[in-house]
Amino acid sequence: MGTRDMPLPRLYELLHGQDRDRWPPEARFLAAAHHGDVRKIKKIAKELDVQGRGIPATVASTTYMGMNALHAAGGRGRLPAYEYLVEEVGMDVDKPDTAQAFTPAAHAVTNGCLPAIKYLVNHGADVRQQRSKGNITLLHTAALLGYSEIVEFLLSRGADVDAISDLGTPLAVAALRGYASIVKILLQNNADPNKASCQFGPLTLALQKSSVSCMKLLIQGGTKVSCDNPFDNPLLKAAEKGLTEAIKCLLEAGANPNVHDTFGRLPIELAAEYGTREDVEILFPFTSPISSVEKWSVDGIISHVKMEIKQLEDGNFVKKRMSDLKRQADEAFKKQDYPNASLLYTQALKMDNFDAKLLSNRSLCWLRMGDGQRAFDDAAKCKRLRPKWAKAHYRQGAALMFTKEYDGAYSALSRALELDPESEEIEKLFWEAMELRLSEKGCLSR
User: Fold this and answer.
1) What is the spatial distance between Cα 55 and Cα 39, in angstroms, rounded to a whole number?
2) What is the pLDDT of residues 53-64, one digit of tens each?
3) What sections of 313-440 are H helices per DSSP?
4) DSSP conformational letter for 67
5) What is the DSSP letter of 97?
6) Which Pfam families match (predicted)?
């Protein structure tokens, strides 16, 4: 258990020992608020009121470790404490603490206190409030922690069912945690199953959790099952996880079994490596023949994948094969045969998926073929592998220029120029990005 998840009294015990009489009075004050003990709150406030401002003023102004009494009251969610603090003392129901930017309602949701949440909302708490850190709403928190009754209440009071945060939408959060009951509630309240702010949609997140029940609900709710993005392809994820029932459902719903992952593998190849023979048999009738598989059959695919795995364990074979693939890919690129070049770079990446140069080269192939998203994805991975390599940032900037995301392109190319100030190629694209960025914002006349 981390300190963020720890009840306040337990945290104070770790900091100050178990003898509560030795705690700072502010700590004892917030512990009393945590337990909803109004009598004790007043008693300790009187002890703290050295300036004679009165108990209500002292209660309202006393804080400890960034929290006030109304934040701490969310520990048990006892209504008498809320009634005293809000109606008598007049404390702000939407004021965030300075430790985690949690409002009183956010504390109440975190602790699963539905009566407290109802009280706070009925007394003016903003049901659509977003934390400054990550834009997380009360609904995100309730979905993340599996509080279905709180989810229903918040939606009934106007919470934004499709609110975007750093975690994605509430639906994406519930799918990732595998909470089928909450996925169902959100879909019944018209949550968009295809909306996501992160790299993965709700369907892929549900499969990441191996939640077939969430997957079925999302398909019934109208989620898209076919996706060309290798990072967000549900059939690839189901095959990789060996989820036989999920594979069947996705194929019935129209999922495309001929989309490669980032290393050039089809769902049927992943099924042969990670799943069962049944998975391969299910995918076989829907999969287009793979040229490198000598005998196109279920047994042929399984043998092919097993042989590939065995070959990858042979260092000498890998070294020679990598050299041949790189040479062939470079030759294809020089001939402007970008589809074949990208395929060869992909085959090489299957043998070494941490080769930043291969990712950089394949990113350029995607760009020449007009696929800005894949060009960006490869450049982003290349940058993660070699964050101080100018070309990685340049590739990302070029991809963003193609997709007309000029702010991001400007930032990426600015960093590339910092790392390689002598590059005329980078400098030229940097100035182009700057002009387009300013023009888009109306700062330059056309």
Assistant:
1) 12
2) 999 999 999 999
3) 315-334, 338-351, 356-368, 372-385, 390-402, 406-419, 424-440
4) E
5) P
6) Ank, Ank_2, TPR_BSK1_C
| Token representation of residue 76 | 């048990």
Distances (CA, A) of 330 to 9, 74, 78, 333: 64, 62, 69, 5
Task: Return residue ranges of the chain for CATH 1.25.40.20.
Answer: 1-126, 130-224, 226-312
Residue carrying structure tokens 């390599």? 389
Place of tokens 């395929």: 343
What totals of helices (H) and strands (E) does the chain contain, helices first?
A: 26, 2
List the CATH code of the domain at 226-312: 1.25.40.20
Annotation: CATH topology of 315-440: 1.25.40
d(CA 320, CA 297): 28
pLDDT tens-place string over residues 33-82: 999 999 999 999 999 998 899 999 999 999 999 999 999 998 887 899 99
* Amino acid, single-letter form, for residue 215: M
The reply to whether the predicted model has a pTM over 0.70 is yes
Nearest to 359 by CA among 410, 388, 396: 396
The segment(s) of the chain belonging to CATH 1.25.40.10 are 315-440
Would you give the end-to-end CA distance of the chain in angstroms? Answer: 58
CATH architecture of 130-224: Alpha Horseshoe (1.25)
Whether 260 contacts 346, CB under 8 Å: yes
